[in-house]
Amino acid sequence: MDDSFFLSAALIVLALALSGPAGLLLALRQRHHIRVLERRLALVEARPVAGSGPITAPMTTPILAPEPARPEPAPAAVPPVPSPALPPVPPPRGAVPAVAPERPISAPAPSIEERFGTRWTVWVGGLALAFGAVLLVRYSAERGLFGPGVRIAGALALALSLVGLGEFLRRRLRGSEPVPPIRPDVPAMVTAAGTVGLFGAVYAAHALYGFIGPGLAFAGLAATGLAAMVAALLHGPALAGIGLVGALATPLLVGGGGTSLWPLALYLPVVAGSAYAFAWLKGWRALAVAGGLGAAAWALFLTILPGENVAVQVHLVLQQALAILVFAVLPGRGVPDAEARLDRFAALALAAAAGVALAVLGLTPHAGSGLAWAAAALAAIVLPALAGFVAAPAAAGGAVAALTLAGALVLWPEAAEPASAPFFFLWYGTDHPGLLLALAAAGSLAVAGLGTLRLLGGSRLPYATALAFAAGAAVAPLAALALAYLRITGGAVAPDFAAAAGGLAAGFCGLAVLCRRQGDATPSPALTLGFGAFAAASVASLCLGLVFALAGGSLTPALAGAALATGLIARRLDIPALRWCVAGLAVIVAARLAWDPALIRGGLSDRLILNGLVTAYGLPALCFGLAAWAIRRPDRRPGHSADIPEQVAQALSLLLSGLFVFLEIRHALHGGTLADPGTSVLEQGLTTLTSLGFSLVLVRFSGPSASPVIRFAGLAFACLALFQGALGLGLAANPLLTDEPVTGGLILNDAVLAYALPAAAAFALARAARGVRPVWFVRMAGGLGLALSFLALCLAVRHGFQGERLGLDRETGQAEWYAYSAVWLGLGLVALGYGILRGSATARLASAVLVGLATLKVFLFDLSGLEGPLRALSFLGLGGCLIGIGLVYQRLVFAPPPRPAAPDA
């Protein structure tokens, strides 16, 4: 066989491929008529058809429209005539009711045959057409039947023929009717196959044979993609998706015009804008989302290509503006303020656009003056805020703009030689501080101004929408000021930033006054919310100014003061949303503590109590405690615990209070040096005493309506005291093990204070916790008190005999051994007396343990270790105590019941 046979076979296959759709056209010519007949049949089936029997006249008067009542004379009384009992006449089977109820006709589920004949064949047929064209071109190339020019011409002819056939099928099958939403459209599928063929032919002409250059190939592919999106107005969204993918992939296939990125920076927004326009015109959200994803992918991809960063930033601004216009502005444009509820999809789109913008800005550091970088960052900040201003449902744009401003200031490139190492992804120093300040000021003014204007002009806004505007307008300037301060000064004292904070506080006061006046004229919750937000922001600005001027960079006192002011404003104006702002500020401070618990660095004075710890820990603890009281819900019913904002503020207040007292103890005992290594028995004892004191106070405040935070904190402090007593006082700082000197007299010394005071606090806690805390908690506190009392007596005895050094390696005399037995028995008797007086079985059990321990010591150690009268006195004293204890148990604890009186004779 020669090649002519294969050529004839190929032509036959091509003829069959082209005749298949034609045959399908002939088979489906009557599709329109069949559809009309199906609709008529459905309408006929929806109407009840009269039965075969005769239709009897209804016994009652048919239902007519109501007529006005007419006065009729009263009929004469006629005795009722009994009528023969007749069976009820059923309504005729085929009778049509006066008002037929409208029932939606649900379409039956398509069968396998219908799916095969109407869907799968169309999809597979379109795919087969595309593969057939590709295989035919490949075969001709392998056999050398035609030259390159003939191949490209044939491919173009085949593609154009498929496009023309698709248009012909569209006009014959459905005309101007829309694309069927369920079944795949045959004309659209044929047109899509032709479009793919056009892409392949143009690309082959450039990449395989070099007939056309990159510029012409770029223009041809781009025109094909855009033309496909235009044709999609007639053939449906699938063709638009193919055109969009082809248009976006064109620069990857043939390049974007050399090393310059400007052609791509201008071409890609045109493609995305075309997709957005067609999607908005036809309501194809999926096409718009696909265009947005493609634009985001290209924006990130351009950052790794060599070329001008300015072109990348211009492309970013254009793409962000188009996306915000389509996804946020147009859907919410024209919505009345009273109906302007937050659009979640718009908020998600704004957040995604801002995230892409920050990523691009982070990947394109500015060089030279950085003016283009700052302009792109400013556009990324202003565009979301402007979207919220224009379309109220996109009010989340204000909050997104504030976060974008903070992110831009964090991403601002550092100095060539930074003054210090980065702290939490934040570099200190910049080569262009003036430009950074200009960006912070311009972005803050834009976000705050647009949000304030929207609040003042939209008094009928829903609460959530107004909250979004108020949050963006209040947070953006505060975040910009704080971050600019950290980037430029590195946390040092800065009077100029303190003055700026004062000016910002005055500006917030002015905005609060405007909202108050507008609210007096036209009362609304939105204006009240704006007034509260700006008043809280004013106080926060003053707190920031104090930190900048005095505290040297610690933001914790400023945030705590802002939380207190916000809580008071929320209580005074009854703004529930501000309660969550207090919780948010508390979470920020808690995160700061988790990152680095040391809120104060070097330079701490050695003054007791009144030192830097007061402002770093004590003042924030007080502020958050008062804030928790301020945001307590006035309508909380008895027996109900606090809600989440109040619990968060309470938890942080307790945490800061504990750290403040613990650090003050360490500051006092180490001469003002918190980082001094080592510890002492007095420090461990006072820390344990503090933990027990916190737990005791919280137990006193706990009740049926107490906050879960208070109950949990009481348990936590008690467990901390147990841990501190066992490891700190029992092992780490125990003078018996460390042999550290114990200062003080015979009665009052470090050992007695470190063990006796916590023991007394533990006993008080055990007594106060009865009926309030679980039984195991009461027993744990009592056991801790007993153990600390035992150690305190032992150390007191050893200090009396040994002096300052109490190590176990020192020799123990016979008198000291005898004193231990007497002290242990005495402590056991005291515990027994308390147990009998209070009816405490736990105390009596502890007494039994102590007495048993003393008994073992006497029989095991005193018998062999003591000599002379001390050994005899030890046994005599033990015997007398044991007999007395037995008599007490027989007469008081387990006394027999009284005998009944004898009857009189």
List how many beta strands DSSP finds: 0
Mean pLDDT across the residues is 77
What best-fitting shape do the alpha-carbon axes yield? elongated
Rg (C-alpha, Å): 44 Å
- Major sheet: size, sense and barrel closure? none
Which percent range fits the helix content? Answer: over 70%
CA-to-CA gap between the ends? 147 Å
Provide structural commentary.
- The structure is a single chain.
- The chain has 29 helices and no strands.
- The N and C termini lie far apart (147 Å).
- Helix 11 runs antiparallel to helix 12 (371-390) and helix 13 runs parallel beside helix 15.
- The relative contact order is 0.03.
- By secondary structure, it is an all-alpha fold.
In short:
With 905 residues, the protein is mostly helical. The chain contains 29 helices and no strands. It is 71% helix and 0% strand.
Keywords for this structure?
single chain; 29 helices; disordered N terminus; mainly alpha
Task: Summarize the helices and strands and which ones pair or pack.
Layout: H1 3-27, H2 31-46, H3 112-143, H4 148-173, H5 186-207, H6 214-235, H7 237-254, H8 262-282, H9 285-302, H10 309-332, H11 344-363, H12 371-390, H13 396-411, H14 433-457, H15 463-489, H16 495-521, H17 525-551, H18 556-573, H19 576-595, H20 612-630, H21 644-669, H22 681-701, H23 708-732, H24 735-738, H25 750-768, H26 775-802, H27 814-838, H28 841-865, H29 869-893
Helix pairs in contact: 1-3, 3-4, 3-5, 4-5, 5-6, 5-7, 6-7, 6-8, 7-8, 7-9, 8-9, 8-10, 9-10, 10-11, 10-12, 11-12, 11-13, 12-13, 12-14, 13-14, 13-15, 14-15, 15-16, 15-17, 16-17, 17-18, 18-19, 18-20, 19-21, 20-21, 21-22, 21-23, 22-23, 22-25, 23-26, 25-26, 26-27, 27-28, 27-29, 28-29
Keywords: Membrane, Transmembrane, Transmembrane helix
Transmembrane segments: 6-28, 120-139, 145-165, 186-205, 211-231, 238-255, 261-279, 286-304, 310-330, 342-364, 370-391, 398-415, 435-456, 463-485, 497-515, 527-548, 554-570, 577-595, 607-631, 651-669, 681-701, 713-732, 752-769, 776-798, 818-837, 844-864, 870-889
Pfam family, one: DUF2339
